[in-house]
Design brief:
This protein is mainly α and 435 residues long. It has 15 helices and two strands. Strands 1-2 form a two-stranded parallel ribbon. It starts with a helix and ends with a strand.
Length: 435
C-alpha cells in the first residue's frame, strides 16, 4: 500500500487522548506502587523466563569449560613452541571464563531496577572480558577448534539473551521514573510539613499580637481614667504650684545677682587686696567674701541680715575713699553710691525672708506631691504601655517574615507538584493532576 499512500496521501492516524485522572497528594505512593506492580507484572514472566535461560546457559558453559579442561594437548606433536602457547592460553582462558561466569550469575532478587542494572552491566562485562582474553580464545582454537567453537556459540547465546532481556526492560522505561517520583514526593511531603509548621507558627504569632493589643487597649483605658481622676488633678495642680514657686525663686536669685552686679568688680579687687595682705580680714570674713562672689544666694542663707556683708562693704567703701582701691573720680562716686545703696538695702525682708517663705512652700508642696503615689502609678502604666508597643512592633515584624516564609514554601510546593504531575503522567501514560 506504500505506493498508494504516495499517490493519494497517507491517512493521518487519530491521536488517542490520554486518560485524565486526579490524585490526592497522599494517594501518590499507592498509585505509584499499583502502577509499578502492574507494569512490572506485565513483563515479569518474560524477564524471569530470560533469567532462567541465562542460568541454564551459564551452567552449560560451565560444563563445557570442564570438558575443555579435560582436553589434552600434546606438547611434542607439531610445532612445540606453538603448542606451549596453546597450553598456556587454554589454562588462562578457563580461569578467566570461570571468573566471568561467576560475575554473570544473576542476583537473588525480584527487584525490577536491580535486575535491569544486572542485565546492563552483564552486556558490558561480557563484551569487555571476552575482548580482554580474545587472544587466549584464538590460540586455544588453533588446536581445539571444536570445543572453542561450541564455547563461542554459548557466549553468543548469552549475549543474545542478555540483549533480549534488556529490550524487555527498555519496553517499560517508564517504570524507571518511580525512583525519581519517590524522591520528588518526599521533597514535596517535607515542604508540606514545613508549610504546616510555618502556618502554625504564623497563627501563634497572630494570637500573640491579638493578646498584646487587648492588653494594650486595657492599659490605655486604665491610664486614661487615672489621668482624669481627682488625684491626678490634684497632682497636676501641685506640679504647677511647684513650678511657679521655682520660677519665683529663680527671679529672686536673678534680682540678687542684679543687686551685686554694680559692685562685682569692687568685690573682686578687694579680694585681691586681701589675698596680697594689703587688707587684713578674719578667716570667716575671707570665706564669706569668696562665697558672696561665687554664690551670693548661698552666702545670704548664712548671713541672714547681711550684717557681715555690710561690714565688708564698709571696708570696701573706706578703701575706695582712701584710694587703696584706685578709681577715677567719676567712677569713684558711682561705686560709693552703689555701695551706699546696698548698705541701706533691707536684705533680710527683701531677700532672705522672701526666699525663706518660698522654700517653706516648696518643701510643703513637695511633701504633698510625695504623699501622692499617682505619679508612680502613671509612670508604671506608661512603662508597661511602651513595653507592650515594642512587643507588638516586634511581633508584627516577625509575623510579616513568617508570612513571607509560608508564601515562599507554598510557591515551592506548587513547583514540586507540577514536576510530580509531569513525572506521574510519563510514568502512568495518563494525564495526572494532583489536587
Amino acid at each position: 500500500m506504500g505506493f498508494l499512500d504516495k499517490i493519494f496521501g497517507k491517512k493521518e492516524e487519530a491521536v488517542k487522548p490520554k486518560e485524565k485522572i486526579e490524585l490526592k497528594f497522599e494517594e501518590i505512593p499507592i498509585f505509584l506502587e499499583k502502577n509499578y506492580s502492574q507494569g512490572f507484572g506485565e513483563v515479569s514472566k518474560e524477564i524471569f523466563s530470560k533469567i532462567s535461560e541465562i542460568k541454564h546457559l551459564l551452567k552449560e558453559t560451565e560444563t563445557q569449560l570442564k570438558e575443555l579442561e579435560k582436553e589434552k594437548i600434546e606438547e611434542n606433536e607439531g610445532n612445540n613452541r606453538l603448542r606451549r602457547i596453546v597450553i598456556t592460553s587454554k589454562k588462562t582462558l578457563i580461569e578467566k571464563m570461570k571468573n566471568l561466569l561467576y560475575k554473570l550469575s544473576p542476583p537473588a532478587s525480584n527487584d525490577f531496577f536491580e535486575l535491569n542494572s544486572y542485565c546492563e552491566n552483564s552486556i558490558k562485562l561480557l563484551k569487555s572480558e571476552v575482548n580482554a582474553f580474545g587472544k587466549n580464545i584464538a590460540y586455544t582454537g588453533i588446536v581445539l577448534k571444536e570445543p572453542i567453537k561450541k564455547l563461542g556459540e554459548r557466549i553468543k547465546e548469552l549475549n543474545s539473551v542478555f540483549s533480549e532481556t534488556k529490550k524487555i526492560f527498555d519496553s517499560k522505561k517508564s517504570l524507571f521514573l518511580s525512583a525519581g517520583i519517590k524522591g520528588s514526593f518526599s521533597k514535596a511531603k517535607a515542604k508540606i510539613q514545613q508549610k504546616s509548621d510555618s502556618s502554625a507558627l504564623e497563627k501563634e504569632i497572630s494570637s500573640k499580637i491579638s493578646s498584646v493589643e487587648r492588653n494594650l487597649e486595657e492599659l490605655q483605658e486604665k491610664l486614661k481614667k487615672l489621668e482624669s481622676s481627682a488625684e491626678a488633678e490634684e497632682f497636676k495642680k501641685l506640679l504647677e504650684e511647684k513650678k511657679s514657686l521655682n520660677e519665683k525663686k529663680h527671679e529672686m536669685k536673678n534680682k540678687l545677682i542684679e543687686l551685686f552686679y554694680p559692685i562685682d568688680k569692687l568685690l573682686r579687687t578687694f579680694r585681691k587686696l586681701v589675698e596680697s595682705k594689703r587688707f587684713i580680714l578674719k578667716e570667716e570674713e575671707k570665706i564669706l567674701l569668696t562665697t558672696y562672689l561665687s554664690n551670693p544666694f548661698l552666702a545670704l542663707k548664712k548671713d541672714t541680715e547681711a550684717a557681715a556683708l555690710k561690714k565688708l562693704l564698709n571696708y570696701i567703701k573706706e578703701s575706695v575713699k582712701k584710694g587703696t582701691i584706685s578709681l577715677k573720680e567719676k567712677e569713684k562716686e558711682k561705686k560709693i553710691s552703689a555701695l551706699n545703696s546696698l548698705l541701706e538695702y533691707d536684705f533680710f525682708n527683701e531677700v532672705f525672708w522672701k526666699l525663706n517663705e518660698i522654700d517653706k512652700k516648696l518643701i510643703e508642696t513637695e511633701g504633698k506631691i510625695s504623699s501622692l503615689d499617682i505619679s508612680d502609678k502613671i509612670s508604671s502604666l506608661e512603662g508597661e504601655i511602651i513595653s507592650l508597643k515594642d512587643s507588638r512592633e516586634s511581633s508584627l515584624k516577625e509575623s510579616k517574615n513568617q508570612k513571607n516564609k509560608t508564601e515562599k514554601i507554598s510557591s515551592e510546593i506548587s513547583s514540586l507538584k507540577e514536576v510530580l504531575e509531569e513525572k506521574l503522567s510519563d510514568f502512568s501514560e495518563k494525564e495526572v493532576k494532583i489536587s
